[in-house]
Structure to design on (153 residues):
């Protein structure tokens, strides 16, 4: 279950998912499972599930780079649930240049431990700006963020 794709076997570039995503297993703010490539993307909704739950990808088998987990948090539906991470719930591939909200709500103590992603906890929501000319860029001097409502312009 994913905000944009349940099972990504292609390439997702310059895309976003803004809605909340809820499922049982393998749930991601952008994609439930990623087999190929995700680049220059972001997700903003709350992600809820039992295991394999990530801000961007629930279970990842392909490269994810320059993407942003702007989710307010992850929620666990079963007290025995596992594999939760800000970028990916479970990861078996290269993660590079990704960022997540440092204030993202953890579903349980140490949920985000050992979920290695470059810059996983780097900055906070207020250091990013989402523009209409091609996605997200890091803008440290900004104190707020903006989201174009429909990204059609």
């Amino acid at each position: 279950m994913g905000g944009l794709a349940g099972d990504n076997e292609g390439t997702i570039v310059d895309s976003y998912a803004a809605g909340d995503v809820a499922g049982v297993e393998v749930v991601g703010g952008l994609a439930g499972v990623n087999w190929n490539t995700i680049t220059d993307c972001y997700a903003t909704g709350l992600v809820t599930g039992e295991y394999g739950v990530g801000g961007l990808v629930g279970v990842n088998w392909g490269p994810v780079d320059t993407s942003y987990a702007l989710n307010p948090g992850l929620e666990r539906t079963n007290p025995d649930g596992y594999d939760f991470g800000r970028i990916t719930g479970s990861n078996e591939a290269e993660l590079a240049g990704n960022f997540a909200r440092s204030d993202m709500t953890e579903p349980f103590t140490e949920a985000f431990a050992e979920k290695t992603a470059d810059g996983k906890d780097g900055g906070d929501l207020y250091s990013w700006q989402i523009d209409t000319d091609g996605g997200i860029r890091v803008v440290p001097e900004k104190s707020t963020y903006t989201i174009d409502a429909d990204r059609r312009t």
